[in-house]
Amino acid sequence: xxxxxxxxxxxxxxxxxxxxxxxxxxxxxxxxxxxxxxxxxxxxxxxxxxxxxxxxxxxxxxxxxxxxxxxxxxxxxxxxxxxxxxxxxxxxxxxxxxxxxxxxxxxxxxxxxxxxxxxxxxxxxxxxxxxxxxxxxxxxxxxxxxxxxxxxxxxxxxxxxxxxxxxxxx
Length: 170
What we know:
The protein has an 8-stranded mixed β-sheet with strand order 1-2-3-4-5-6-8-7. The protein contains 6 helices and 8 strands. It has 170 residues and is of the alpha+beta class.
């Protein structure tokens, strides 16, 4: 998938190092609900598994990179893919060097179009910590609507925080 400066592409075996770095970055574990580190072997298996059909795996992770370049700037995920109910959850990670430059919204808009137009989904959703102001703003900018707030939903090192539930209909 391509628009503007960015492309979204499937995971490749050579992505293992960046995937290993991001999946084991404790600073983003809170947003990904991760509690333990991943080994490279686990991630190699994940990449192999990612090559299977989305209808088998019920998830899709794509790399966000500049068109015509090997520079990877992030990842975007479709998780809990449910073809019967035509919905799925969305998550985005942008490398810190590329944040606040509009790349997340460009990638998310491209991904939304793919999910609605190609996968035939009726709705997308996102669960976002109340403290993650950048993600709240991103999803609102891309047309997601706040549907509800789960009170004291996520445990952090500083205590419990709320989680916002956003939804976008096709």
